[in-house]
Amino acid sequence: MKELKLQVGSVDIVAFVSERDENAMVALRPFVEDLGLSWASQAAKLRKNPQFSCSDIEAVGADGKSREMLSIPVKQLGMWLCTVNANRVKPEIREELIQFQTCLQAAAYS
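User: That's the sequence. What structure does it adopt?
Assistant: Structure tokens below.
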């Protein structure tokens, strides 16, 4: 498991990524919580949506203990971020999320 720190605006978002090459998975709970979203709501949304290939991977939590965490393939992370309501994330990263979503929309259209 590799820890990646992404700086979005003034917020550091931690992503835990399994080292499976093209099948790399990202543990979502720390990512979701760093965005300021409700983990329970996002986990339920992910599990019931067939477009996401959810699975549980072993990851280290904020308390340093290993546990199973819901994950999706890294290649699906952008798609998931496009489903996030920007009005529900931390105010300090809202504009960056909107810009990201707009870029993905433009890329999908072209």
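The chain has a mean pLDDT of 84.
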